[in-house]
Amino acid sequence: MIKIGNDWDEILNGEYDKQYFKRLTRQIDLGYQSMQVYPPREKLFRALELTPYSSVKVVILGQDPYHIEGLADGLAFSVEDGVPIPATLMNIFTELKNDLGCPIPLSGNLEKWAKQGVLLLNCIFTVRDGVAGSHRNYGWEEYTKRILQEIDKKEQPVVYILWGNFARFKTSLLHNPKHKIITSFHPSPLSANRGFFGSKPFSQANEFLVSQGEKPIDWCLSEK
Asked: Which of 138, 156, 157, 195 could form a disulfide with 185 if both were Cys (CB 3.0 to 4.6 A apart)?
């Protein structure tokens, strides 16, 4: 039985008994035993552990973890302290600087965001070394569908930040008019110049939260 250790355990009660999740568990167990899979197993549910359901104010969706050794830390787009900042995350920090004036940080560790209620959720929780998208259709999509549907039920206003087509397709799951959806191109080097830069997702999110009587997110991280 999966234990997150907070209110997600109650929210997702029964999900782990479903056949798709049992198949998923078998596949993931085999993967960790026989090949290099990211993130490290102990960080597999870190996004949910750091951001309880009751605390979710912002959702940033990623596709799947970084597929290069040493990068994936269980939070979408994040890397641990001391790890070189990947190009996509550097583009996120560049937009953050242009949007809110936050200095480019020393570290790509986004734990500070997660602890303020920013759910950094990869739609696919695992990936095989060197092969992006290698764990598609294992069952993670069904799991994250349930997570998004539960967040959609929240009375507390939530901001969804959806970058790129993969994330934008999830708008079909989001129907609560109390929430706000922010979309743009993906921050990867292949698409950032096509509409990610200048999209101002961070100030948009905070403006909405403040308008709803919620505390804004302190997006600035430690300075470089």
From this structure: 195
For the chain, helix, strand, coil in percent to 5 are 40, 10, 50
At residue 164, the 3 state secondary structure works out as helix
3-class state of residue 106 by DSSP? coil
What is the SS3 assignment for 41-97? HHHCCHHHHHCCHHHCCEEEEECCCCCCCCCCCCCCCCCCCCCCCCHHHHHHHHHHH
d(CA 144, CA 139): 9
Q: Edge-to-edge strand order for the sheet containing 159-163?
A: 118-122, 58-62, 159-163, 180-184
Query: Cα angle vertex 180, ends 115, 213, to 5°?
Result: 65
Tokens representing 32? 């960790």
Please give the pLDDT value at position 224.
45
pTM over 0.90: yes
| 17 counts as catalytic | no
**Half-sphere exposure (Cβ direction) of 56: Cα atoms closer than 13 Å:** 29
* Number of Cβ atoms within 10 Å of the Cβ of 129: 12
* C-alpha distance from residue 140 to each of 50, 64, 164, 168, 188 (Å): 19, 10, 19, 17, 22
State phi, psi for 97 to the nearest 5 degrees.
-65, -45
What interhelical angle do 19-34 and 140-152 show, nearest 10? 130
* Percent of the residues in the chain that have a pLDDT greater than 90, as a whole number: 97
Report pLDDT for 1: 74
